């Protein structure tokens, strides 16, 4: 019987570049062992249980993540959210990606996910889709960094599994707060931070690169760059059917593809997010 080759072995000698050796090495996410560093990212409309299991058949996969799931929909026991979060014993290790902006709902949803098989919890702070942002979730959390860090800390405190965060470089090119926010999240207890090398303003346009991410970690001369991520005022996301009154400052925004059906039939809290405000640029570092 022929031996099944792994995904890495199939690509060797093919048109695709071979995976760097470090990708094949095991790692630990907090206390969770991961067999390789080849992760399946959350893809809206694709990363269902069936898709995740199919990709696992290729071999060599480390960690998989679900589609974006609305925490409030889990709390309200909506069937669509349960469908997106579906898993099985063969789907391990698996992380569930949650979005929302109400700490109590995020805590409750995270606990539910762990009870139902999640090996880790990923908090989406990067989705740029208006439906998600206007509800206060996704990249909107990057506009309220103090509250975002408190929310993440609450989720970390609520579950025993590793908690990770996905975010972007910033809201736009003038607000690259990824470094300072990542450090604040580390202090809140996250096991890892995943940075999408684009800003919220870019959406899915342009090229997402590690080089862009690295640039955001090097403040320019004389600039206070990203050091104000967790201090001072931060602008809030736009109200429904309205553009931001001011561009967010020092507020990172991530982005994750989100299909409309995954955002729950109820798109947000009864209280709309406050009007945007731009923080002072001369905040202390």
Describe this structure in words.
The protein is α/β, with parallel strands linked by helices and 285 residues long. It has helices at residues 7-11, 21-24, 49-56, 71-75, 79-84, 103-115, 130-133, 145-158, 178-188, 210-216; strands at 27-29, 32-34, 64-70, 94-99, 120-124, 163-168, 192-196. The protein has a five-stranded parallel sheet with strand order 3-4-5-6-7. It is globular and about 45 Å long. The model is unreliable at 219-236 and 239-285 (pLDDT under 50).
- Radius of gyration, whole Å: 19 Å
Question: How many distinct domains?
Answer: 1
Mean pLDDT: 77
Which CATH class applies here? Alpha Beta
Write the layout of secondary structure elements.
Elements: H1 7-11, H2 21-24, E1 27-29, E2 32-34, H3 49-56, E3 64-70, H4 71-75, H5 79-84, E4 94-99, H6 103-115, E5 120-124, H7 130-133, H8 145-158, E6 163-168, H9 178-188, E7 192-196, H10 210-216
Parallel strand pairs: 3-4, 4-5, 5-6, 6-7
Antiparallel strand pairs: 1-2
Helix pairs in contact: 6-8, 8-9
Short structural summary:
This protein is of the alpha/beta class. 27% of the residues lie in helices and 12% in strands.
Supply database-style keywords.
285 residues, alpha/beta, TIM Barrel, five-stranded parallel sheet, 10 helices, 27% helix
């Amino acid at each position: 019987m022929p031996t099944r080759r792994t995904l890495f072995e199939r690509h060797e000698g093919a048109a695709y570049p071979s995976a760097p050796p470090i990708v094949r090495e095991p790692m630990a996410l907090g206390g969770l062992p991961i067999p390789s560093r080849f992760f399946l990212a959350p893809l809206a409309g694709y990363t269902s249980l069936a898709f995740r299991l199919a990709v696992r058949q290729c071999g060599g996969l480390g960690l998989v993540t679900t589609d974006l799931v609305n925490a409030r929909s889990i709390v309200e026991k909506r069937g669509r959210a349960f469908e997106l979060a579906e898993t099985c014993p063969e789907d391990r290790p698996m992380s569930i990606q949650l979005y929302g902006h109400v700490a109590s709902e995020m805590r409750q949803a995270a606990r539910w996910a762990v009870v139902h098989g999640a090996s880790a919890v990923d908090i989406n702070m990067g989705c740029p889709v208006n439906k998600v942002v206007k509800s206060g979730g996704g990249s909107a959390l990057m506009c309220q960094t103090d509250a975002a860090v408190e929310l993440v800390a609450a989720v970390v405190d609520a579950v025993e599994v590793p908690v990770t965060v996905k975010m972007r470089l910033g809201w736009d090119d003038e607000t690259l707060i990824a470094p300072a926010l990542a450090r604040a999240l580390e202090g809140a207890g996250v096991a890892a931070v995943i940075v999408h090398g684009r800003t919220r303003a870019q959406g899915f346009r342009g090229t997402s690169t590690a080089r862009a991410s690295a640039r955001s970690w090097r403040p320019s001369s004389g600039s206070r760059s990203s050091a104000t991520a967790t201090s001072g005022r931060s602008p809030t996301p736009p109200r429904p059917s309205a553009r931001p009154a001011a561009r967010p400052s020092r507020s990172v925004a991530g982005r994750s593809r989100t299909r409309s059906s995954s955002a729950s039939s109820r798109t947000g809290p009864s209280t709309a997010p406050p009007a945007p405000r731009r923080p002072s640029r001369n905040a202390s570092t």
